[in-house]
Give the backbone structure.
Amino acid sequence: MLLNNGNGTFTGGPLDAIMILHNIDRGTYHAAFFEEHPLPGPVLDVEKTKLVRLQSRFHHTEGSLTFEGAVQHVKELAEKITLPKENIFKDKPREWDGKIGITYLVDNWRASDTTTTGKERK
């Protein structure tokens, strides 16, 4: 859920995310915004949701030839979209084939204490 603040900035939902994509075909790195698209069924509290479905909303089209350049693009994107700090991933890129319409199903990084495998979070 992306809310327009009316001043050129936006506020994202509690499980929206910004991350870096690594285009494995071109070797470029792209800052990207992902919006949560809840799975079918009842909508659970953020802490009780075990799996999060993220769908790409937009990304830095040209990308960067370096990972460091993409980190800078993430910082610029985070200045325009307000998200919790833990929803901004800039340490490790996700491999990407360059196709549009990216959807990821990931363990909820904000869940209270367990993953879908039942192992303790560190």
About this structure: The helical segments are 67-80. The longest helix spans residues 67-80.
